[in-house]
Amino acid sequence: MPKIVDHEQKRKLIAESAWSIIEAKGIEHASIRAIAAAAGLSPGALRHYFSTQDELLLFIVDYYLTRGVTRRGELDISRIPLKAAKEILLELLPMDSEKRTAVGVWWVFAIRSLTSSALQNKKDELTDGLHYLTKAVLDILAKAELLPSSIDVELETYRLAAIVEGLTSLALLRPEVYTPETVERIVTRHLRELCASMSDE
Fold first, then answer.
1. pLDDT of 12
2. Three-class SS of 105-140
3. DSSP states of 23-65 as a string?
4. Whole-angstrom Cα distance, residue 184 to residue 195?
5. Distances in Å between the alpha carbon of 34 and those of 23, 27, 104, 177?
6. pLDDT attached to residue 86
7. What per-residue confidence (pLDDT) applies to 68?
8. How far apart are alpha carbons 107 and 173 in whole angstroms?
9. d(Cα 42, Cα 63) in Å, to the nearest integer?
10. Looking at residue 197, what is its pLDDT?
11. For the chain, which residues score pLDDT lower than 50?
12. Angstrom distance (rounded) from CA 130 to CA 161
């Protein structure tokens, strides 16, 4: 009787094998050959599931995002508006080793998306997702009447996204300077100053 192969399970195994290599050795070591070996496959068999490196990279990013969304869904967000806003922003930043690994994958993905039509839609989706979350942070503060009525919500959404992206890059490039503690202090200061502008009205 022929063996029944669960192709989706096999793709998941490949993604997990790739992620374990990236976490342990860095994305530069996640070659087709290395990932195939870790998953117990031949390079040819792996290409049966992912015909191109871009297709594999897209699947890895989607796999990580699923894990990230699950983790965020399990977060116990504070009922205190300012604290809740900070918790959401910190979840987007590389505050631990897993999220630092994800940032490395994202950089490779983002750079390749500039020349790969296969990746461009996902790149836009991820960027839009960041804007959605920074807008959600502002909505939390606005509903609590902590923001000035004159605030330009669209511009502030983009500015907050730029701060998240800037801190993400610096935390990865200079972790000895932009430690998790320093990153948290910067986020806290920005949110407090944003809310403090209420007194200027």
1. 84
2. HHHHHHHHHCCCHHHHHHHHHHHHHHHHHHHHHHHH
3. HHH-GGG--HHHHHHHTT--HHHHHHH-SSHHHHHHHHHHHHH
4. 17
5. 13, 11, 18, 33
6. 95
7. 59
8. 12
9. 22
10. 64
11. 1-3
12. 7
